[in-house]
Design brief:
Layout (H helix, E strand, L loop, with lengths): L4 E4 L5 H14 L3 E4 L6 H18 L2 E5 L2 H7 L3 E4 L6 H8 L4 E6 L2 H9 L4 E4 L16 H14 L6 E4 L7 H7 L3 E4 L1 H4 L4 H12 L5
Parallel strand pairs: 1-2, 1-8, 2-3, 3-4, 4-5, 5-6, 6-7, 7-8
Helix pairs in contact: 1-2, 2-3, 6-7
Length: 211
């Protein structure tokens, strides 16, 4: 089951990532993606082990961004692959059929290619400009999601599509209406004093509206 809300970890240091993961899990999240960039493999692995302990404590799915070998080592629930990361087929061969594999897309062609590679979900974006990601793809906006998803689903594709990129609490309703399965949020959740409120709102908005 692919969650309607993916929390993408954020922080200036690995330790801050872990503190934020703990805080968001405590608030009621059920899906966390550990996204560490510009760190050594050892640091990513050590942080992933700690993140797994936190997520296991709260019965939360842990997804590792970019490092299939780390996902395998810590027995994470799956992996998310960017457009420049390894091929989903390679990750599947390493992780096996029971792990979740997601991939990043920006166009209809990207989505169709990921379907052909049998990913379990697609992270489609960005919704708007965000400083979280370098080398940002063209911004889609709500209308971009509607048009792309209309074409995607008319082709008979039913794979869950998760909106990502600069999403805040005020965007939830319009993105639910666009037809996405869920949202991936980083800074828009980390920065809140009361993340539990937004988590509950997202659960409510998507209730009964899953694709």
């Amino acid at each position: 089951m692919i969650s309607n809300l993916h929390y993408i970890s954020q922080g200036e240091t690995p330790e801050e990532h872990l503190r934020n993961i703990h805080r968001i899990c405590l608030a009621g999240a059920d899906w966390v993606q550990l996204r560490l960039k510009d760190e050594t493999l050892k640091t990513v692995l050590d942080t992933a082990r700690s993140a797994k302990e936190i997520c296991d404590l709260f019965k939360v799915k842990l997804i590792i961004n970019d490092y299939p070998e780390v996902a395998k080592e810590v027995d994470a629930h799956g992996i998310h692959l960017g457009k420049k990361d390894c091929c989903p087929w390679e990750a599947r061969a390493l992780l096996g059929t029971n792990k979740i594999i997601g991939g990043t897309a920006n166009t209809l062609e990207d989505c169709e290619a990921l379907c052909d590679k049998q990913v379990d979900y697609i992270g489609l974006g960005p919704f708007r400009f965000t400083t979280t990601k370098k080398d940002l793809s063209p911004v889609l906006g709500a209308e971009g999601y509607r048009k792309l998803l209309s074409s995607f689903h008319s082709g008979g594709k039913s794979i869950p599509v998760i909106a990502i990129g600069g999403i805040t609490a005020s965007d939830v309703s319009i993105l639910v209406e666009s037809g996405v399965h869920g949202l991936a949020i980083s800074g828009g959740l980390t920065s809140l004093e009361d993340p539990e409120k937004l988590l509950k709102e997202i659960q409510y908005q998507f209730s009964g509206k899953k694709l």
